[in-house]
Structures are given as structure tokens and as C-alpha cells.
């Protein structure tokens, strides 16, 4: 490893944010190391374009097998890599799934953060290694005040959020107790074409693309009333980087300051493919109907029901309203998002239309592919 090049270690490198952050740090000249989990299927799709054969000279991206539930590997990797910066993005990140796997979520998302902090401390790297913790707007949970800022009280509403609350405070505690450069980025929802297929935005943009191509009939969703402050992951990884470049370690809210209902996101995504949707009914009876369709790929008759509510997607406890106050990050980090929601939706739908072109060709030639995600 060269002495003047910065070295970053990313947990969760195979996820949405891991991929964008790796791209950003490589472009800035960093040597990047990532921790990936062993999986029975390839799980590096999002970073395959950045991969380098380890036999080449001057390799800038290296992957290590590991898991946040195993402190032995974390200590070994951190000792080997001697990172200047650690971005702890690894997590069981699906709120609804955390109700099904609460203990695992606490272990990976909560104690996993402690394992990283403690590894840095035990290895004597407190003065060298800066740590970014992927904290979340889910911490605000049940609305205490809006917009939510760094000083708004937390009220987590899921096993995921409770685990992330432990991670938040243990990060603050290690900063205060040991003088570590350890910070929380309290990031509001951020999306992209790389977003996991079961998060609501990507589920919607995939469905809009597939319905527009005649590959899917209907989209089933849960709570259409939830309001989220959605930004673009590409913008948000810049904020992560900036949080670790300050003189003093601090926690920051990263958000757009604009909130939108799930229902409105649906309308915007379908509008991208020329389908105008109107919602009628209330709660679980609410449905989205096609008003008009000017889609050149596939005509959907006006009056067709393309969106329906399935209560199985409801959460036992819901976070109804998130809207961030990003003033501190705008002023202190000089960070501002470049994308607005319309730009995000357009990019996501365009990417999904491209993704399903192959499936459409297969279907048009008589093949069908069974959906795995909906
Ligand atoms: P993803 O779900 O796309 O990625 C999560 C990453 O964590 C994947 O690389 C996954 O590996 C890895 N991972 C999961 N469990 C473990 C484990 N036990 N040990 C090691 N790695 C693990 O999430 P995002 O990229 O969207 O989010 C990144 C981080 O930011 C997460 O911590 C999330 O909770 C947090 N966050 C996300 C926000 C968002 O809107 N996206 C907002 C606020 C916070 P694999 O690929 O093998 O599954
Ligand atoms: P969230 O994101 O829970 O905010 O967590 P998600 O996209 O899963 O849900 C957003 C809102 O949409 C409602 N919803 C549905 N959600 C999903 N997944 N599927 C559906 O069919 C559906 N229908 C309605 C949800 O009830 C919710 O209100 C994300 C994750 O990335 C976390 O890791 C991160 O910490 C937070 O964002 C900030």
C-alpha cells in the first residue's frame, strides 16, 4: 500500500450505497477495500464494473469475505487493511423484514457497529481511522416534530430502527469516551436504479416499466399514505464522504427537505411511461385505475386496475411521515442534492425499461419468465 494514498474500508460494499460510494472514492484516488458476505449466488452485480483482477498491478479495489456478526474477521480485516476511513454501510436494511428477523437485525445492525468501533480501538487505530456510521431517519419513527433535524428526539418503530438506535449511540459514545473520529450520517431515504427490488420506490418503477411492456398486470402495495423524503443515492454518498473530511467529528442529517406520499410516487412513475393513474377508494380498498394511456410499447385500456393494496405489506408499526431539515449539512458541509424527485423517478424508470427489454424480447418470441420479486 502506498503511503500517501488514502485507504477506505466499506462494509456493505455490495449494496446500493456501497456501489456508489466505491465509485466516488475510486474516482478520488482512494484504495478501496470492501467486505462482502459469502453467498450461494454471486452478490457483486452492483460493483462488477469496478472489479479488478487481483493479479493485476496496482489493484485499487479489493474484496474480503466477512460478516458484521463475526468480530474475528472484522479485527483481521481492519488489522490487514489499516484503513484511514471506515464506512459502516453493512446492515439488514429492510424495515419490514426486521419484524421477521429481529434478533439477527440487532446483531448485524446494532452489535455489528460496536464490533467495528471496538476493533479499531483494540488495534490502536483510534488516532488513524475515521468511522462513518450509516444512521437513518427511521430513528425518528413516531413523529415528535417536523421537519426532523439533528436535535429531534428519536422514537424508533421497528426492530431495524431500534438496532440502528443502539448503533447511533454507541458511535456517539466511542467518540466522546475515546476521542475517536466517529460520526453518524442520519440519512433520509435515498434511491436509485441500484435500489433493492423490494423497497417501495424500486418496486414501483419496476412495475411501471413491466406494466408498460405488457410483462405484468398489477402492482400490489401496502400503505399508500406514508410520506418519505426521497433523495438520490449518488448525492447521498457524497455527503458520507464529506462527513469524514471535517475538522471535528459531528453527526449530520442528510435529506432534501421535501416529502412525498407513496401514492404520488406511483403517479409519477407511471406518468413516465405515458400511463395516467387515478386513485379511488379508502385504505385497503384503495385502487389505482388507468385514466389514459399514451404508451407506445403497450396499450393499457382506460379503467384497468393496475394498482391495488395488499395489507400483507403493512407493517405492525409504521413510520408515517419523514421530512428532513438538512440546514446543518447545507451550511457546514456545503452539501446540496443535485437531483430532485422528478429527476430520480425519470432515471429509475428509464433504467428499468432498459432492464426489461430482454424479457420483452423473450416474451415476444414465446418465452415467459416467472417474477421472483413482486
Ligand atoms: P442495501 O440493503 O442495498 O445494502 C446492505 C449491504 O449490507 C449489502 O452489501 C449487504 O450484503 C450487507 N450486509 C447485510 N448484512 C450483513 C452482514 N451481516 N454482514 C456484512 N454485510 C452485511 O442497503 P443500502 O445500500 O440502501 O444502505 C446502506 C446502509 O445505509 C445500510 O446500513 C442502511 O441501513 C443504511 N441506510 C439506508 C438508507 C437508504 O435509504 N438506502 C437510509 C438511511 C440509512 P449482501 O449484498 O450480501 O446482502
Ligand atoms: P423504508 O423504505 O421502510 O422507509 O426504509 P421502504 O421503501 O421499504 O418503505 C417506504 C414506505 O413505503 C411503504 N410501502 C411499502 N414499502 C415496501 N417496501 N413495499 C411495499 O409494497 C410498500 N407499500 C407501501 C412502507 O410502509 C413505508 O412507509 C428505507 C430503508 O432503506 C432503510 O434501511 C432506511 O433506513 C430508511 O429507508 C431510511
TrEMBL record:
Catalytically driven reaction(s): GDP-alpha-D-mannose = GDP-4-dehydro-alpha-D-rhamnose + H2O
RNA-binding listed as a keyword: no
Gene that encodes the chain: gmd
One Pfam family here: GDP_Man_Dehyd
Keywords of the record: Lyase, NADP
UniProt-listed HAMAP family: GDP_Man_dehydratase (MF_00955)
Top EC group: lyase
Cofactor needs: NADP(+)
Purpose of the protein: Catalyzes the conversion of GDP-D-mannose to GDP-4-dehydro-6-deoxy-D-mannose.
EC numbers for this chain: 4.2.1.47
UniProt similarity note: Belongs to the NAD(P)-dependent epimerase/dehydratase family. GDP-mannose 4,6-dehydratase subfamily.
Lyase as UniProt keyword: yes
A GO MF term: GDP-mannose 4,6-dehydratase activity
NAD(P)-binding domain segment(s): 9-348
Protein name stated in the entry: GDP-mannose 4,6-dehydratase
CDD domains: GDP_MD_SDR_e (cd05260)
